[in-house]
Write a structure and sequence with these properties.
The protein is of the alpha/beta class. Helices cover about 50% and strands about 10% of the residues. It has 2 domains: about 130 residues, Response regulator (Rossmann fold, 3-Layer(aba) Sandwich), CATH 3.40.50; about 60 residues, Orthogonal Bundle (Arc Repressor Mutant, subunit A). It has a 5-stranded parallel sheet with strand order 2-1-3-4-5, sandwiched between helices. Helix 2 packs parallel to helix 3 and helix 7 packs across helix 10. It starts with a strand and ends with a helix.
Length: about 210
C-alpha cells in the first residue's frame, strides 16, 4: 500500500481526496498538513510514498515547501496539486524538484494516473501541457488578468488572499517588507483591484486558492 501525505489548507480538499482514494486498493492518505510548516515537520519525522502538495498555503509558498522537502528527503516524490494554471507553475515546480503537476480541475481518472505515475518513479504532466512543451508553443487566446503575474507575484497573491501579513510573506520568501509591498502594488495594478479584500474576492471567483 502506497502511503500519501497531503498538504492543503482546505479541509474539504483533504477530506475529499481521502474519501476518493479510500476506494482504491493501493493508495492511502496516512497523514495531512494544513500549512507548509506542518508539512516540513512531518517530512522530517517520516517517509511517504508520495507528498501531494498545494501551492497556495497560508504560511509558506508551496514552491518553498517543495524545496525544503527535497533538501530533507531528495528521493521523496512530490506531486503538485493546485488550482493555478499549468502554464504558470508547472515548469517552475518541475525545476524545483516536483515529480509532476496536476490541476485540481482534473478528472478523477487523471488524478489516479498522476499519483500512480509519480509513485512509480516517473514524472507526470497533463497531456495538454505535454503537447505544449513538445511543440514549444505558448498558450493562445484571451489571457485572464492573473495570467500576467510573474511566478513570485502569483505566490504573493495567494498569501495575501489568505490574510498573511507583509512581514510574514517577506520572511517566507526571504525578501524585505518593502519588496513585498512592491509586489502587492504590481498585483493590484495587474488584477485591476484596489484592496486586499478585492484581491481575495478575485482569487475566490477564479478558484485560484
Amino acid at each position: 500500500m502506497a502511503t500519501i501525505l497531503i498538504v492543503d489548507d482546505h479541509a474539504v480538499v483533504r477530506g475529499g481526496l481521502r474519501q476518493f482514494l479510500a476506494d482504491t486498493d493501493d493508495l492511502e492518505i496516512t497523514a495531512e498538513a494544513a500549512t507548509g510548516a506542518e508539512a516540513v515537520a512531518l517530512v522530517q519525522e517520516s517517509d511517504w510514498s508520495l507528498v501531494l502538495l498545494d501551492i497556495g498555503l497560508p504560511d509558506l509558498s508551496g514552491l518553498e515547501v517543495l524545496k525544503q522537502i527535497k533538501r530533507l528527503r531528495p528521493n521523496m516524490p512530490v506531486l503538485i496539486f493546485s488550482m493555478f494554471s499549468e502554464d504558470e507553475f508547472a515548469i517552475p515546480s518541475l525545476e524545483a524538484g516536483a515529480s509532476g503537476y496536476l490541476n485540481k480541475d482534473s478528472r478523477p481518472s487523471h488524478i489516479l494516473t498522476a499519483i500512480r505515475t509519480v509513485i512509480g518513479g516517473a514524472r507526470y504532466v497533463s497531456p495538454t501541457l505535454a503537447e505544449k512543451l513538445l511543440a514549444g508553443v505558448a498558450p493562445t487566446g484571451r489571457r485572464l488578468r492573473h495570467e500576467s503575474l510573474s511566478r513570485r507575484e502569483a505566490e504573493v497573491l495567494l498569501m495575501l488572499s489568505k490574510g498573511t501579513s507583509l512581514t510574514k510573506i517577506g520572511e517566507s520568501l526571504h525578501v524585505s517588507v518593502k519588496t513585498v509591498s512592491t509586489y502587492r502594488a504590481r498585483i493590484l495594478e495587474k488584477l485591476d483591484v484596489q484592496s486586499n479584500a478585492e484581491l481575495t474576492r478575485y482569487v475566490i471567483e477564479h478558484r485560484l486558492g
